[in-house]
């Protein structure tokens, strides 16, 4: 956030000469240099921008560069979700704080139009927060297994790899499974491959293709396992293997999405 311009300290201290004419017949004592410096420091602190920060309200100064305002709100969002283990350690208060910060950034970013800005989706994105993870499951509209409860599963980093040219949309999840002592834990990377389709101007529909599991760490020499998509005739009617979400903010390094159950997700480019 850009700071408000203040007059140089020399001009403030220069006012001392106006209170000190050659004649000593003054109706009040001349202020000391130390008092003036303390007053100057107080003026620098109690500027409107600082007061707004203390009130946690966005400062929309007409003279402020919009890019500075966006950068400030992005920093506020990142600060709100930091230290929450992607949402797994989030409390209700943490969720409210993240939601409020996301809405501020969405508001200043305006309406997303992927028909015009589709290239902004291109790349590998790292998930830094999901409100669905606060339920202590793998989250989403189809909750996965509880983490660390029924099975000794540890969720690692989560990425989305988007290729707008080939319409590929891959969810990449790092997993660690506990094993009996003295065996080392099983580490693996699961890649859930999808095809993407733009719906309207800001919604994305993804359709599942297959899942690939590649052992890593101590078991990296094992071959990867591919789990193909079941034929339509064999899949239950409720298992559509597709999902839809809305992109509510996107730029070159930050993306906010809202899931089909209202989940808030925050990504940064990796």
From TrEMBL:
This is Plastid lipid-associated protein/fibrillin conserved domain-containing protein. InterPro entries: PAP, PAP/fibrillin_dom. Residues 72-267 form the Plastid lipid-associated protein/fibrillin conserved domain. It is found in: Plastid. The keyword Plastid applies. Keywords: Plastid, Transit peptide. The keyword Plastid applies. GO terms for cellular component: plastid. It holds the Pfam family PAP_fibrillin. PANTHER family: PLASTID-LIPID-ASSOCIATED PROTEIN 4, CHLOROPLASTIC-RELATED. Its main location: plastid.
């Amino acid at each position: 956030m850009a700071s408000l311009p203040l007059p140089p300290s020399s001009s403030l201290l220069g006012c001392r000469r106006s209170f000190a004419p050659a004649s000593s017949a003054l109706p009040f004592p001349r202020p000391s240099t130390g008092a003036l410096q303390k007053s100057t420091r107080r003026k620098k602190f109690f500027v409107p921008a600082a007061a707004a920060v203390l009130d946690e309200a966005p400062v929309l100064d007409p003279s402020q560069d919009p890019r500075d305002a966006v950068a400030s709100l992005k920093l506020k969002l990142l600060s709100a979700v930091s230290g929450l283990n992607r949402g797994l350690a989030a409390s209700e208060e943490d969720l409210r704080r993240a939601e409020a910060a996301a809405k501020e950034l969405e508001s200043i970013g305006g309406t997303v139009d992927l028909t015009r800005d589709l290239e902004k989706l291109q790349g590998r994105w790292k998930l830094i927060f999901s409100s669905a993870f606060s339920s202590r499951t793998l989250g989403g509209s189809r909750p996965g297994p509880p983490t660390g409860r029924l099975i000794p599963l540890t969720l690692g980093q989560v990425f989305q790899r988007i290729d707008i040219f080939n319409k590929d949309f891959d969810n990449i999840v790092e997993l660690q499974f506990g094993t009996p002592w003295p065996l080392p834990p099983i580490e693996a990377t699961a890649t859930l491959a999808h095809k993407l389709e733009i719906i309207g101007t800001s919604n994305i529909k993804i359709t599942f293709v297959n899942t690939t599991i590649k052992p890593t760490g101590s078991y990296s020499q094992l071959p990867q396992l591919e789990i193909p998509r079941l034929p339509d005739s064999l899949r239950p009617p409720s298992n559509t293997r597709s999902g839809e979400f809305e992109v509510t903010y996107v730029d070159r390094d930050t993306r906010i999405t809202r899931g089909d159950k209202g989940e808030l997700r925050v990504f940064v480019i990796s």
